[in-house]
């Protein structure tokens, strides 16, 4: 019959495993924060480039369009008014695109769920009921995710 390990060995194994679990949770959180930050940076840079490029290119084209409409017989002020309407339409479309893209940026949902599941599992293992309002657990303390 194999000799059973002493309490000191068991405690050291529990501490080692808890440290490994904590390190994994921290790594997951860091990775998710990094990914979300990269998505925000990409969307922001792309939006700024688009705004700057469209503004510069359209400025000259729209002035030419307004004067072109005046050459076709429309008064100059009416030509510029038509150009203003076109600019407003473009701004609305760009705003809708930005709103849709910003909705795809998520928070730390995976890391939060894993932290909650770990908290519930540790609480269950220690015989402590989960904290009030803890989501993602059944009465036995196991995650339902």
Write the layout of secondary structure elements.
Layout: H1 7-71, H2 76-102, H3 109-126
Explain what you see:
- The structure is a single chain.
- This protein has 3 helices and no strands.
- By secondary structure, the protein is an all-alpha fold.
- The protein has a domain at 57-103.
- The protein is rod-shaped and about 100 Å long.
- The two termini are 41 Å apart.
Summarize the structure.
By secondary structure, the chain is mainly α.
Q: Please tally the β strands and state the result.
A: 0
From the N-terminal CA to the C-terminal CA, the straight-line distance is 41 Å
Please mark out the parts with pLDDT under 50 across 5 or more consecutive residues, or reply none.
Answer: 137-145
Question: Strand pairing plus helix content: what structural class?
Answer: mainly alpha
Helix content range: over 70%
What is the mean predicted local confidence, pLDDT?
83
Q: Beta-strand percentage? A: under 5%
Number of helices: 3
Biggest sheet character: none
* Global shape: rod-shaped
What gyration radius follows from the Cα positions, in whole Å? 30 Å
Helix and strand sequence: HHH
Which terms would index this structure?
single chain, 145 residues, mainly alpha, 3 helices, 76% helix, rod-shaped
């Amino acid at each position: 019959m194999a000799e059973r390990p002493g309490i000191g060995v068991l405690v050291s194994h529990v501490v080692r495993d808890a440290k490994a679990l904590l390190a994994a949770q921290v790594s997951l959180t860091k990775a998710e924060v990094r990914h979300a930050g990269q998505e925000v940076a990409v969307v922001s840079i792309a939006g700024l480039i688009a705004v700057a490029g469209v503004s510069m290119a359209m400025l000259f084209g729209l002035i030419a369009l307004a004067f072109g409409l005046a050459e076709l017989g429309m008064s100059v002020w009416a030509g510029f008014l038509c150009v203003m309407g076109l600019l407003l339409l473009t701004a609305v479309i760009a705003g809708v695109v930005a709103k849709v893209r910003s909705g795809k940026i998520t928070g730390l949902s995976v890391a939060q769920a894993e932290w909650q599941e770990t908290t519930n599992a540790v609480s269950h293992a220690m015989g402590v009921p989960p904290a009030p309002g803890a989501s993602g657990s059944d009465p036995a303390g196991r995650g339902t995710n």
